[in-house]
Amino acid sequence: MLFRHPSFSAAAEPVLQRWLPWFSAFFYAARILQIKPQAGCLRLKLRVSRFFPLFVPGQHLALRVQLNGVAMERTFSICSPLRQLLLQRELELAIKIQPQGRFTGALPAALTPGDYVHLSAPAGEFCYQQGQPACFIAGGSGVTPLFSMLTSVSRLTAPLLFVYCYRGPSQLLFAGQWQQLQQKFPLLRLILWDTTQQGRFSADALIQLQPDWQGQFCLCGPAAMTRAFKAVCLAQGATESQISQESYGVAFSPAAGTQPVSLLQGGQRHALIGQGTLLERAEQSGLAPRYGCRRGICMQCLCEKRSGLVRNLLTGEISAAGSEQIQLCISEAVSAVELISEGADDNAKV
Amino acid sequence: MTMQKFDNTTDAAQLTALAGELDQLLQQHKSGLGAADLQYLQRLVFWQRAAAMSGRLLMLLCWFSWWWLLPAAGLLALAKILDNMEIGHNVLHGQYDFLRHPTLNSKHYEWDIACDAKSWQRTHNFEHHTYTNIIGQDRDYGYGLLRLSADLRWRLQNSWQILTYLMLSTLFQWGIAYHELAAQRVFFGRKKAERHSQVSDQQLKKAFFTKARRQLIKDYLFYPLLCWPVALPVLLGNMLANLLRNWWTSTVIFCGHFTEHAQVFSPEQCAGESRGHWYYRQILGSSNFSGPRWLHILTGHLSFQIEHHLFPDLPAWRYPALAGEVRAIAGRYGIHYNCGSFVGQYLTVLKRILRFSLP
Predict the structure, then answer these.
(1) Closest CA to A299 of A276, A268, A328
(2) Closest Cβ opposite residue B100 in set A70, A298, A315
(3) Would you tell me which residues 279-308 of chain B have a C-beta closer than 8 angstroms to some C-beta of chain A?
(4) Cβ distance B338 to B306 under 8 Å?
(5) Taking Cα atoms as reference points, which of A194, A135, A144 lies closest to residue A169?
(6) Considering CB atoms only, which of A68, A73, A293 is closest to B34?
(7) Reported pTM
C-alpha cells in the first residue's frame, strides 16, 4: 500500500480523516480560537500543535481553507509576536477582506470558532535585525508583518521610526495596542498617519521625519507604495542591502498576451518573452514545457501558478489571483503571472 | 463497421450547433461542482483502503484454511479495481483537480497498477482522447495487436487474435505499462519517422522499470515475506487479485470502443477538425452499457463511455445525471447513441474480434 504514496502519513490520510477530519499529511492543522472583524480585516486567532515550526517575525504563511469542497490557499503575514507561539501555541493573522474576493470574500461566512484550517510552514525573507536604527513604513494591511516584528521585540536598543498609513480611523488596525507599545518602548517613534486627514504620506513627509538613512528600512504595503519609498531611500543614500520590502496586490490588465510572466524552474527564474498562450510563450522563450493536444483536452501541460490572473481561452473565465493548477495551452496572462515548474521529477524537460 | 462517411465541410453549421449545445451542457454541470465531489472521492478512497487492508489481513487466515484465500483475494481485487478505475483513471484525467487536493490530482496521483501514471496520461489522455478511433493515430484501437476494423490490413497473425485477446486480457496491466514503449519502438522494431515524443527512450525505460519493480516487490516479495508463515497463500492471493483486476478492467475497456456499432475514422476526415467534429466523433466512436449503480462504480463510470469521451474532465460519478441530456442531443442531430446491456455489448466485442480475424 505504501509503495505508491509519498509518505506513510499520506497513505494513512484517507483513513484517518474519516475520524479526524482535520488530519493532513501535508499541512499543519490549526484550530480557530477567535474570529474578530477589525478595520476591514478579519483577525484570526489560531491554536497550532507543538509540531508547528518557529517563525521569524515578518514571515508569512499560506492559509488553506476548504470553500465548498475546494481547497483555497492564500498567503498572509503573521501579525502576532513569536512569544505567543512559544508560550501559548497561538498564531494570529489579520486578513484584509475584499468583499468581491473569491477567498477573503467568502471567509467570514465559512469560518466559525472551533473549525480547523490548514497552514503551511512559515516562509519569507522579510525580517528585522535589532540593534541598529530602523525605519518601518506600512501602508494599510501591510502593517501586519511589521507589527509582528515590533511586538516580538522585548526591549528596543536602537531608535525605531514606525510610520503606519491608514485610511481613516475605521481602518486602523490594532487600534487598542499602539498606545501601550509607545509606552513600552521609549525608543519607538510612532507616526500614525491618517491619509483622510493628512493626505498621502509623501516622500517629503518621510524626509521631514529625518529617519536614519544609514539604518535599516522595512517597507510593506501596496506594490506602488513600497516601490516609491524604496526609490526615496536609495536617493537619500541608503543602499539596497539596507532595504527589505514586501508588497501585495496584482494589477489586472485586459490587454492580455504580453503581460510579464516568470517561470521558476529548478531554482532558476525564466522571464517569458513573446505573446499568445502561456505554452506558446514558454516555447518562444526557448523552454520545452510538457504538452499534448494543445486544445485543452488532455491536461498534459498542467502547471502550478503561484500568483497572477490568467484567462481561460475556452471559457473566457478569469482565474483567481492565488495559487492553482492551470492548463498552459488554453491560458493567457492578464496580469503579471508567476509559474512554478516541477523540474527534475517530472518526465518532461520543464 | 467501416469508416463513417461524413463530410465535415458541408455540415459545419450543424457541428457548430452541436458543439454549442454540448458546451452549454458542460458549463451547466461544471458550475455545480464542489463539496459533493470531495465527499464522494474521499468516501471512495476510504472504502478502497478498507477493502485493501481487510483483503490483506484476511489472507493471514490461510494459516487455518486455504479457503480464506478466495474472499481475501476478492477483496484485494476489489480494492485494485476501485483504485484503477473509479479513483485512478478519473483522478489522472484531472477530473478532481479543481479540488486542489494535495495527492488526489492528475499531477501527483500514482495508482496500484504496473503502468506508470505519467506514461498512461500521454498515451490515454492525449493520444486516445484526442484521436479517438482514428485508424493509425489512436493506438488504443486494437492496441497494435488486434484487427478490429476492415480498414486495417489483414495479416496472418490476426487469424488467432482471439487467443491474443485472451492473453492481453490476462496480462492487461503489463500491456498497458508497455503500451507507450511499444509505440516508440523502444526495444524492438524500426522507429517511425512521424512519431515525435517529448520523452526520451531512456526516460521511458527508467519509468517503466521503476514502476514495474515497485509493483512486483510489493505484491510478490514484501507482503509475502511480511506474513512469512503464510507467504505462499499471500503470494498466490496477490497474483489472483491482480488477475481478477486484469480481466475485469480489460473487459470493461473493450466494451468502450470495440462494440459492434462503434465507428472508426480516417486521419483525412479529422485533419483540422472543429470542436463540433471532435464531439461528433466521440459519440460515434464510444459505446455505453447499462446496469445498477455498483456496476457503474466498478467500471469507473466507463459504462458511460460516451459521456466520458465528451467530457473527460468532468467528475465521472456525475455522468449518469447528464446521460439523458446527451442522448437527447445526439438524437436531435441524428447521431447514433450506442447503448446496451453489459453482456450484450461484450458479446458484440467478441463477435468483432472473431469477425476481423478473417480477411
Answers:
(1) A328
(2) A70
(3) none
(4) yes
(5) A194
(6) A68
(7) 0.87
Shortest distance between the Cα of B50 and any Cα of chain A, in A, equals 8
pLDDT tens digits along A35-46 = 999 999 999 999
Pairing of the two strands A243-248 and A216-222: parallel
Q: Which residues are within 8 A (CB) of A99 and not within 5 positions of it... i.e. 6 or more apart?
A: A105
Q: Give ipTM to 2 decimals.
A: 0.84
Q: Which residues of A touch B (CB under 8 A)?
A: 1, 3-6, 10, 13-15, 17-18, 24-27, 66, 68-73, 288, 290-293, 295, 297-300, 302, 315, 324-325, 342, 346-349
- Residues whose CB falls within 8 Å of the CB of residue B12, separated by 6 or more in sequence, listed in order: B274, B276
Q: Which residues of A touch B99 (CB under 8 A)?
A: 69-71
C-alpha cell at A288: 520545452
Backbone region of residue A324 per phi and psi (left: phi > 0; alpha: psi in -120 to 50; beta: other values): beta
CB pair distance less than 8 Å for A300 and B126: yes
Q: What is the pLDDT of residue B1?
A: 40
DSSP code, position B68: G
Contact B89, B256 (CB under 8 A): no
Dump pLDDT digits (tens) for A143-188. Answer: 999 999 999 999 999 999 999 999 999 999 999 999 999 999 999 9
